[in-house]
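Today's session is about reading a structure prediction critically. Students often jump straight to the picture, but the first step is always the sequence itself: look for stretches that repeat, for charged clusters, for runs of hydrophobic residues. Only then move on to the predicted structure, which in these notes is written as discrete structure tokens rather than atom positions. Here is the chain we will use throughout the hour.
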Amino acid sequence: MSVESNNSESQYTNQCQITKCRVVKHDGQEDNLAPDMILGLFTRESLLSPFISGSIIISDSANWLNGSNPVEGGEKVKIEVKTPVKEEAESYEYRIWKIGNRVSLNNKQAYTLALISEEAIINEGTRVIGRIPRGGQNEEEVPEMSITDIVTKLVREELHSTKPIYSQPTLFKQVVVGANRRPFDIICKLANKSVPTTSVNTDTTNTSSQTKEVVTGSAGFFFWETKRGYNFFSVDALCDEVGGKWSSPSLISESHGVYKEKVANVEGVDSRSIISKIKFQSEIDIMSALRTGKYSSNMVFFNHTTGKYTEYQYKASESYKNMAHLGNQTKISEMMIGDIHFENQPTRLLTFVIDHEKWFNNAGIADPEDSSNPENPSVFADRNKYFVAQTIARKEMLRNQECKIEIPGDNTICAGDKVEIEVQKKAADEIKKDDPIDVESSGVYLVRDVEHGYFFSEGTSGTVITTLQLFRDSFGMKDKETTHGQ
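Below is the predicted structure for this chain, in token form.
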């Protein structure tokens, strides 16, 4: 039975078929895995991971694993799966990194081939040495690179990847010293230092006796891989609508849904859009928010070359209106205990020793904010005050609501996409008869993790189920009023 042969709704929601599964050995020989050998296939993507992964559950009665050309690890695996969601088959390409869960019974063995993207394996054997960009400021032409440029350079030149790279521009020039670190390690650190060009950063002097300044703005990027390629985008670009103020035209992100929570004894519901399982894993974690400085943080900077000491306070409430949000809150939920307003009471202290002179070889003052030498400041100044607290607070906001849902298989959904869900209000029938929808928990979420599970218990056709880990930074539906943040 092929996928195309049955168009009934129940089959449409979860039918799948493997059309190709080839293992390319190190000597170039290709082995075709028969469809009846494959019991299950899982593909995984995560907004928090720089590589994709997967696994194949094998039932082996021909000693394929340890035959004349045994599996040794690192072999390329090419897979094509056909589902009714798309006309063409979905293709995946991985490398084998592990064989596990091997059991034997009655001249047959079952085991799992753990799969990972090729670049993840190359990353383990690659150490970045030297400075990026090379050269210095005393040269005739100063080599300048943004963080986006450095990320692209690392993927292309260190990981030798030819996959598409989608990214958005970042503020400020940056210098990176490899220090024998792996490319992905460097990129993940740079992601937290990245400030989008759409960020609104301002400083206003506080009249307190401590001469503390207030700094605002938004920062923080994610670097992740999907079947579409590599992605490097800010939290705001991911949360914004297409064509919005903080959106990026380079972002390849689709919107899916509306997926509706399953309601018992209700007829006429399209089973393709049903949430079969839903679990809210986290909501309103005050202790974590306070410890990480979500509402307010103090940043202390000491420049050891000039002896300058500066304090800044970051308030998330001051920046909230200059961020993109998935929910309908107009301001951050107020956190207050007694007379203490935590947006004015910093709960995290961050201290830094900075040095604007580090990459500056000319005479004069390197500080770009020093009015006494505005003509020739350091190109590679320390910009910590623009991203340290901002990145922490912005990413902590995404943990405002987290849930896990299970829906009919849709292998077009990738990490970083948006999914709209509709959740039923948990109340007595009398209370929800006029409005059965939970407007605070329903709405648009960001896909943090996605797993497509293909199950083949009999023959060549099987079923596919998609499991999504979702999160977002604010409550409510876009077209409904919310009581949060009022």
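Discussion point for the tutorial: The CA atoms of residues 156 and 162 lie 7 Å apart.
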